[in-house]
Amino acid sequence: MLEALLWDVDGTLAETERDGHRVAFNRAFAECGLPWLWDVPEYGRLLRVAGGVERLLAYMGERQDAPLESAARERLARSIHACKNRHYAMLVEHGGLEPRSGVRRLIGQCLSQGIVLAVATTTSRGNVEALFPQLFGTRWRELFRAVVCAEDAPRKKPDPLVYNLALERLGCTPGEALAVEDSPAGLAAARAAGVACLITRSSYFAAADFIGAAWVCGNLDAPVELSGTIGENMDVPVLRAIHALAMAAR
Ligand code: XBP
Ligand code: MG
Predict the structure, then answer these.
(1) One digit per residue, pLDDT tens: the chain, 250 residues?
(2) Which of 59, 114, 116, 128 falls 20 to 30 Å from 177 in CA-CA distance?
(3) CA distance 149 to 65
(4) Residue of 91, 122, 149 to test ligand 1 pocket, by largest number of atoms within 8 Å of CB
């Protein structure tokens, strides 16, 4: 039985990678006096590394103008990252991001039909606390029974830690949950925790392979064809059917 929906944040709830973190990283580079600029395709390439600090360190490994010594690199990555998060909070507080299609609707339907919700993200808690009031209003905490972030799960996706912790906090088994993700790393993390995964493709992963996903859609408002029946969009009966199919295939 499907009891819980576990939500990824970046790319799944909103286009935060392309329109939020990327833009904020560029503002932080400028503020730190660095000539670095991540355009849309370049940031897509860098997204293979999960975690903002980890992504910066990987990028510095490719740059001649990054500090040579690893402790100095780490210090610079942490200070750019802190600056990026300040810019990210300012950007979202000025209304720069909207929820993706169907996100608010499906959250409301789940809550009214007895499915509990949690967040399982690689991003820092401060970013969730800046973003969620903009997406869901000031009472957003009432929507999610557990919110598991980078500070709780320092091993980033595709490591399953964030999903293991979310399940533990909800008191659910992996077989009672369904993850909603937009990226191959997110899918791998959910699967490694034994959780079936629904993919809603974000702009960066429009053409990615999602082998092993329970279901793949372009967005949660797209019509769904399941067992010969076309539904209007991703709703709770469809979620239950997708989850049941994934469980039967095990
Ligand atoms: C996505 C990530 C994050 C964000 C940036 O996490 O990998 O690193 O790109 O956030 P998810 P931070 O899709 O699991 O929400 O700078 O806080 O790492
Ligand atoms: Mg994501």
Answers:
(1) 999 999 999 999 999 999 999 999 999 999 999 999 999 999 999 999 999 999 999 999 999 999 999 999 999 999 999 999 999 999 999 988 999 999 999 999 999 999 999 999 999 999 999 999 999 999 999 999 999 999 999 999 999 999 999 999 999 999 999 999 999 999 999 999 999 999 999 999 999 999 999 999 999 999 999 888 889 999 999 999 999 999 999 9
(2) 128
(3) 32
(4) 122
CA distances from 76 to 38, 72, 86, 111, 174 (A): 17, 6, 16, 43, 39
Pocket test for ligand 1, best of 8, 13, 21 (most atoms within 8 A of CB): 21
pTM value is 0.97
Closest ligand 1 atom to Cα of 127: 17
DSSP per-residue codes, 137-205: -TTGGGG-SEEE-TTT--S-TTSSHHHHHHHHHHT--GGGEEEEESSHHHHHHHHHTT-EEEEE--GGG
